[in-house]
């Protein structure tokens, strides 16, 4: 691990990834990810000077040499100022940790770099030298301060470790340094416990999951101290910084002789074998950064409190008369719907809510109205659940929703953004119409003409009364839709999922067929008129039968005896599933509603945060994009490996106020895309709803509820949350799919005639070897039949091209927080 300063002088595109090239303090050219940057100073040197420096390892032109000399001169001057500021911090000899740690010894806190600089430096105004010196102070104190795992460069916020964690870690490290006999005593005791638990797990392999306290296990205070520290050590860590727990984990696990190489996967298995983690405990949802409670709902003080607030408000709304201008408290719902007098009543118009069987939040439905005077044209209405009819922007539920960002969906449990007691009784579509009450919605309507164009659009607060709930499979069956892509179950080829079809009247089938025809025509028109394409690989998905699946309490010091394991279903699911049949209809209608929201907001001069993305940049063949567009199928998809070979840089999604292009959605510049269709599960959609309804209430005002400044400040928050949840989702399903495969391989009672898809695996090379000179450097591969990536160990002389097929076998499976399949060539 090397920490250095540098100046960014260029970019490089390697294996379809964008890297930065920086000139280091020593004069070397470094290639690295943008995530490797922990602190940045914008425009420290001019752009012209950086470009003149070149990007080659050894400068060949005099202009490059002189530019690099000038850059290094400026860089060393900055380093001198930073060193001076760091010495000034050291001379004050102020310990930062006691000033910023939580008062609760078991709770984390946070500190930003500017906050730290004010506390430990002697300057009132913190310039870049002082800020970077303070950053280095935080980097040096590895036990007390933890940088953000993925977004540290942007947020510049450090997590401050709880005092109890620090004390326990220091205590165990001291035990190791003085060779305390308690370490060996614990190791011996742990070994016998693990042996018994492994036998219990094997004996109950195919039983349902159960747990009971291990009353026969007795720990000393020293044992509990070690176990607690091992619990704290099980978390993701940036390799760029020394892990303060590595000494403890490596020393103790090496003494246990559990593995030659100790990593997070080995530590995870040790805690399972000790009975302190259930074999089915999900590691990702337990991450501190996600801040998800693992207390059962019926025991959670927060959920019990939220349910009380919901019940109190619903009772008052049902019994009280209008309260006029009575001020609202932080726990008060609106006394009456703010836009009640503006709502358009859709009467008995059928509203089709289409989702998966067992979907937990039904927040959108579709209606269609043909236009008799215009053959081939129709209005499609997207009715979106309207939580803002009862929840004010300053409500405690709104504050909690912002903190959470969105509902957290995991295979074993769902953490809703809004209280379930409120969504199920009042907000989820269909909840009120079953009892004859109208449902509040925000409706985004668009008119599709005979050519598939969006010819007109409207945004209205609405009332719907005729909600018909039906699942995707039923709609596809009723319409006779041909499914080109379905989920594939590699381990259950003979198991057919039971199809229970909901029958609908002919009127409803005809309406659904018309919606499908209009949506398909609109989608095809968009594909033909855009220069976008889709490209993705199918991915493994795990479904858990018993949900919610409860494991052990966080950092439980009480050991358990675990038996059995939950029933899992392993599927390989492709993005193309979303672009066929009824799933395509819902997807395209939601996209259209978001386009309508952007257009309407622009027409009404209403500031909105829009998602945008720029078109790809050709870094090799200038015709690469045109060639890929020529390969598109009818749904707009292009072969994944053709894209990998094309050397295209696809810019990431941004959040902007302007109605800019969203290339990946096929949305042109000037139109924009505002997410509005999921207010029950995304806070940003709630913000858009409040903004729109304020404009509906005050059509002549020029002052929006959320100002452009507020929205701009909120944008990084959205990006951070989206990145965290996307990363968590990927790691979560990767963890469960790898765990499934490991159990499949290790199963002690496997039937002799069972289908074994692991015996004939074929992988496709998905990237280049990171270092061709190293035999140990693996080749990234993708296994289509499993929907997983793997690392192929092959001789260094073996050269494989991206997209090439190779026969492989699995040599080992890593679980934990960094799951991985290790592959070897199959002969």
From TrEMBL:
Gene Ontology biological-process annotations: mRNA catabolic process
InterPro entries in the cross-refs: NA-bd_OB-fold, RNase_II/R, RNR_Ribonuclease
Pfam families referenced in this protein's UniProt entry, alphabetically: RNB
Cellular component, GO, one term: P-body
All copies of domain RNB, residue ranges: 343-698
GO molecular function, one term: RNA binding
Name by which UniProt lists this protein: Unplaced genomic scaffold scaffold_33, whole genome shotgun sequence
Source organism (scientific name): Paxillus rubicundulus Ve08.2h10
């Amino acid at each position: 691990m090397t920490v250095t300063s540098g100046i960014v002088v260029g970019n490089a595109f390697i294996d379809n990834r964008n890297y930065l090239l920086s000139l280091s303090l020593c004069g070397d050219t470094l290639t690295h990810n943008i995530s490797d940057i922990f602190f940045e100073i914008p425009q420290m040197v001019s752009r012209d000077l950086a470009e003149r420096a070149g990007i080659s390892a050894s400068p060949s032109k005099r202009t490059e040499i002189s530019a690099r000399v000038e850059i290094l001169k400026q860089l060393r001057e900055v380093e001198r100022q930073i060193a001076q500021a760091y010495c000034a911090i050291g001379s004050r000899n102020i310990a930062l940790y006691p000033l910023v740690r939580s008062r609760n010894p078991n709770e984390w806190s946070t500190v930003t770099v500017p906050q730290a600089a004010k506390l430990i430096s002697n300057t009132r105004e913190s310039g870049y030298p002082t800020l970077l010196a303070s950053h280095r102070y935080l980097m040096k104190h590895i036990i007390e301060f933890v940088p953000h795992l993925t977004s540290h460069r942007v947020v510049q916020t450090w997590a401050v470790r709880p005092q109890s964690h620090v004390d326990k870690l220091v205590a165990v490290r001291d035990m190791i340094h003085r060779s305390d006999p308690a370490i060996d005593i614990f190791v011996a005791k742990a070994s016998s416990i693990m042996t018994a638990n492994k036998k219990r797990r094997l004996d109950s392999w195919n039983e349902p999951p159960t747990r009971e306290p291990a009353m026969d296990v007795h720990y000393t205070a020293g044992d509990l101290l070690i176990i607690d520290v091992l619990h704290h050590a099980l978390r993701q860590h940036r390799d760029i910084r020394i892990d303060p727990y590595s000494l403890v984990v490596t020393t103790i696990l090496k003494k246990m002789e559990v593995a030659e190489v100790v990593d997070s996967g080995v530590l995870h298995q040790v805690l399972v074998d000790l009975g302190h983690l259930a074999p089915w405990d999900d590691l990702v949802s337990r991450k501190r950064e996600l801040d998800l409670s693992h207390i059962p709902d019926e025991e959670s003080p927060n959920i019990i409190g939220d349910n009380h607030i919901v019940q109190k408000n619903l009772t008052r709304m049902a019994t009280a008369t209008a309260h006029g201008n009575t001020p609202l408290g932080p726990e008060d719902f609106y006394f009456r719907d703010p836009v009640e007098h503006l709502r358009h009543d859709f009467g008995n118009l059928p509203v089709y809510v289409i989702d998966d069987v067992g979907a937990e939040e039904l927040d959108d439905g579709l209606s269609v109205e043909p236009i008799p005077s215009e053959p081939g044209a129709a209005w499609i209405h997207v009715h979106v659940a309207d939580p803002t009819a009862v929840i004010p922007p300053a409500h405690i539920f709104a504050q909690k929703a912002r903190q959470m960002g969105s509902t957290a969906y995991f295979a074993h449990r769902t953490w809703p953004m809004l209280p379930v007691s409120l969504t199920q009784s009042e907000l989820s579509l269909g909840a009120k119409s079953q009892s004859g009450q109208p449902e509040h919605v925000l409706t985004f309507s668009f008119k599709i003409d005979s050519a598939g164009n969006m010819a007109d659009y409207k945004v209205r607060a609405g009332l719907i009364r005729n909600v018909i709930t039906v699942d995707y499979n039923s709609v596809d069956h009723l319409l006779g839709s041909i499914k080109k892509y379905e989920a594939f179950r590699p381990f259950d080829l003979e198991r057919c999922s039971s199809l229970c079809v909901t029958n609908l009247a002919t009127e409803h089938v005809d309406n659904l067929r018309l919606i499908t025809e209009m949506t398909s025509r609109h989608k095809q028109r968009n594909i033909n008129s855009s220069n976008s394409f889709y490209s993705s690989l199918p991915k493994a998905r795990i479904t858990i039968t018993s949900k919610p699946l409860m494991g052990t309490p966080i950092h439980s010091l009480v050991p358990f005896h675990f038996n059995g394991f939950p029933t899992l279903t392993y599927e390989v699911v492709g993005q193309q599933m979303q672009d066929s049949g009824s799933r395509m209809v819902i997807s395209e209608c939601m996209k259209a509603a978001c386009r309508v929201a952007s257009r309407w907001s622009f027409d009404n001069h209403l500031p909105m945060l829009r998602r945008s993305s720029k078109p790809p940049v050709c870094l090799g063949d200038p015709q690469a994009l045109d060639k890929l567009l020529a390969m598109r199928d009818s749904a707009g998809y292009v072969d994944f490996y053709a894209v990998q070979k094309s050397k295209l840089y696809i810019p990431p999604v941004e959040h902007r106020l302007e109605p800019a292009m969203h290339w990946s959605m096929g949305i042109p510049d000037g139109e924009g895309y505002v997410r509005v269709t999921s207010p029950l599960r995304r806070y940003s959609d709630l913000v858009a709803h409040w903004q729109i309804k304020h404009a509906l209430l005050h059509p002549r005002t020029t002052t929006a509820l959320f100002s452009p400044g507020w929205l701009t400040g909120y944008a990084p928050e959205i990006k951070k949350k989206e990145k965290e949840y996307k990363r968590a989702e990927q790691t979560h399903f990767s963890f469960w799919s790898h765990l499934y495969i490991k159990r499949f391989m290790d199963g002690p009672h496997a039937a002799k005639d069972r289908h074994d898809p692991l015996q004939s695996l074929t992988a496709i090379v998905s990237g280049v070897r990171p270092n061709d000179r190293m035999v140990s450097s693996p080749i990234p591969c993708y296994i289509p039949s499993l929907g997983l990536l793997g690392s192929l160990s092959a001789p260094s002389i073996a050269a494989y091209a991206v997209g090439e097929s190779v026969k492989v076998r699995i040599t080992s499976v890593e679980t934990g927080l960094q799951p991985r399949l290790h592959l070897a060539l199959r002969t």
